[in-house]
Amino acid sequence: MEVQDHGIAEEKSVNPLMAKLAKDLKLKLVATNDSHFTNKEDAIAQDAMLCLQTNKLVKDYPRMHFTGTEYLKNPLDWNTQLYIPCQVNSHSQPISPLLNFLLRDQNLSAAECKFEL
């Protein structure tokens, strides 16, 4: 069973229930992360891009936005998550090589964008 923690109130209330359900069903809990950008420092750029995509200004509220935690996390970031306990992270480790395999086999390329100012 999958759990995520991006500091969202709904995740904080649902994750303990997911842990209990997984235990009741004798399932392992697997921690995953919703990744919309690569580095933590890219959160501001991601927010600006989201504004462009949704025809909003950064100063507009309410508007769609992320928490800033949706980046590819390193092991230290994973182990300091607010909810996700270490044993859940260890359940995720056997899945990692399968994901790396799938990604290596894809013919991925970045789109080239040109901006004129």
Describe the structure using short key phrases.
single chain, 2 strands
General description of the model:
- The longest helix is centred in the first third of the chain and has 16 residues, at 9-24.
- The chain contains 5 helices and 2 strands.
- The mean pLDDT is 79.
- It is mainly alpha-helical and 117 residues long.
- It has 2 domains: 1-33 and 73-92, no CATH class; 36-72, no CATH class.
- It is globular.
- The protein has a two-stranded parallel ribbon.
- The protein starts with a strand and ends in a 13-residue tail after the last helix.
- It has helices at residues 9-24, 43-54, 75-79, 86-92, 96-104, and strands at residues 2-3, 30-31.
Described by the principal axes of the CA atoms, the overall outline is: globular
Oligomer: single chain
Rg over alpha carbons: 17 Å
* Low confidence ranges: none
Helix proportion: 40-55%
Please provide the count of β strands. 2
Mean pLDDT: 79
Terminal-residue CA separation:
47 Å
Q: In the residues, how many domains can be counted?
A: 2
| Biggest sheet layout | 2 strands, parallel
Can I get a quick summary?
The chain has helices at 9-24, 43-54, 75-79, 86-92, 96-104, and strands at 2-3, 30-31. With 117 residues, it is mainly α. It is globular, with a radius of gyration of 17 Å.
